[in-house]
Design a protein that fits this description.
The protein has about 140 residues and is mainly α. It has a single domain (about 5-135), classed as MazG-like (Helix Hairpins). The chain has helices spanning about 5-10, 15-25, 30-55, 75-80, 90-115, 120-130; strands at about 60, 85. Strands 1-2 form a two-stranded antiparallel sheet. Helix 2 (about 15-25) crosses helix 5 (about 90-115) and helix 3 (about 30-55) runs antiparallel to helix 5. The longest helix has 26 residues, at about 30-55. It comes from Acidilutibacter cellobiosedens. This is DUF1573 domain-containing protein.
């Protein structure tokens, strides 16, 4: 891939992506196929993350009780841990990105099937997050 193509690929909009998905999806066009593929993709993402810890070992998961006994929500947010130690190796990162890409493909297909704009979904969620900040509590 040349540099111009790579730079153009970095500027793909959600709308462009959704339109391309609608153009190429053939085998799993049914909404039933799409929603079950979304579920399957989610499972493969989870498995790839777990395999990064259990097979590769590039990350470790050190889970413990989260402490919510702080005075403010900001202090709580700052004290919470994600329980991941280490960094993904290139092989694990590539696999997880591949699985996430497939998930996004089927999410875009679901949006298209239901005549929902993926761009609108993302923009609405962004506005909600931006407005509510840490009070979003997700």
């Amino acid at each position: 891939m040349d540099r111009a193509t790579a730079n153009n690929d970095k500027n793909v909009t959600y709308c462009d992506f959704q339109c391309k998905v609608a153009e190429v999806i053939i085998r799993h066009k049914s909404i039933l196929d799409i929603i079950t593929k979304l579920d399957e993709c989610n499972s493969r993402i989870n498995r790839a993350v777990v395999k990064s810890a259990t097979s590769c070992g590039c990350i470790s998961i050190k889970a413990s009780k989260q402490e919510y006994d702080k005075n403010t929500l900001d202090e709580v947010r700052q004290s919470l841990k994600n329980h991941v130690e280490g960094n993904l190796c290139e092989v694990c990162k590539e696999k997880i990105e591949e699985e996430m890409g497939e998930y996004i493909f089927y999410l875009a297909a679901l949006c298209d099937t239901l005549n929902i704009s993926l761009t609108d979904v993302i923009n609405t969620e962004y506005r909600n997050i931006k407005t509510l900040g840490i009070y979003n509590l997700k």
